[in-house]
Amino acid sequence: MKKSSSNRAVPAVLMSMISVQGGASIAKRIFPVMGASGTSTLRIGLSAIILFLIHRPNLFNVTRQQWKTVIPYGLLLGGMNLLFYLGIKRIPLGLGVTVEFLGPLMLALLGSRRVQDLVWALLAGVGIFLIVPWSGDSGIDPIGLLFVLLAGICWALYIVMGGRISHLMRSRDAVPIGLCVAALFILPFGIFSGELSNITPRYFLMGLAVAIFSSAIPFTLDFIGLKNLPSKTFSILMSLHPAFAAFFGLIFLNEFLSASQWLSIGCIITASIGSVVAVHRQEVKSSRVG
C-alpha cells in the first residue's frame, strides 16, 4: 500500500463516519411517521437511483464472478441498514452504533494472535457488559440491542466482502449496483409494513438527505478506504463511529446517556484505538525488517 493511497483513504473514512451519523440523526426524525422499514427503503432506494444515474454502470459488462461478489455485498448493505434502523428506533443512537461497532472490532481482533489484543478484547467486553440491560429498569430495549448486534455482524461481513469486490470492480460500478441489490432486498419490507404510504413531500426531501449523507456519500468514501487499507485497519478506524454517534445524538436528538453508558462507549473506543496503535507498530516493524 502506497503512502499517498493511505493518506487519501484515512480522511475518506473519517468523512464517511461524519456523514453517516449526520444522516442517522435525520433518519431518527423520520421514524415517527415513516417507521424504520419505510425510512430504510427510502434511504437505500434513493441512494441507488442517485448513484446509478451518476455513474451509469453497464450491467451487461458485469462478469459472473463479479455478480457472485456484488450480490452478497448488496444484500449485506441492505441487511445492515434495515437492522440498524430497527435497532436505533428503540435505543439511543450512540448506544446503537457502539453495539453495532462490535462487529468490525471483533473482525479486527480475530485476525490477530498477539497477547496484547486480548487486553483490548477484554476491554471491549467490559464495554458490552456495561451496555447490556441486566435489570428490567435499565431503560434499554433488549430487542433494539439484538437488532444492532445483528447489524454489526452484517457490518463485519460487509467489510470483508467490500474488500473483495474492491479488487474486482471499480467503485463507480460496484457501489450503485450493490445499492440496487440492497434496494430490491429492502423494498418488500417497506411495502408490506405499509410505512411507505405515509410519505409526504417534506419526508421525501428528508429521506433524500438521509440517502445522500448516509449512503451515497459514505459508501463511496468507504470504497476508497476498503481499496487502499487492509480490512483489519479499516475495521479499527471505525472506532470513532460511537463517539460521532453519541455526539450527534446528544446535539441533534437530545439523547442523554448515563455515566455507565458513556463509560461503555469509552471502553470500546479505547480498545479500538489500542488496536490501531498495535497494528501500526507491527506494520512499521515489518517494513523495517523488509
Tally of individual helices: 10
What radius of gyration results from the CA coordinates?
Answer: 19 Å
* Major sheet attributes: none
| Mean pLDDT score | 82
Q: What proportion of the residues is helical, as a percent range?
A: over 70%
- How many DSSP-defined strands? 0
How many structural domains does the protein architecture include?
1
What is the N-to-C succession of helices and strands? HHHHHHHHHH
Share in β-strands: under 5%
Terminal Cα separation, in Å? 14 Å
Structural class: mainly alpha
Shape: globular
Low-confidence spans: none
Describe this structure as you would to a colleague:
This protein has about 290 residues and is mainly alpha-helical. The chain has one domain (about 5-290). About 80% of the residues lie in helices and about 0% in strands. The protein is built from 10 helices and no strands. The model has no long low-confidence stretch (mean pLDDT about 80).
Task: Write a compact overview of the structure shown.
The chain is an all-alpha fold and 290 residues long.
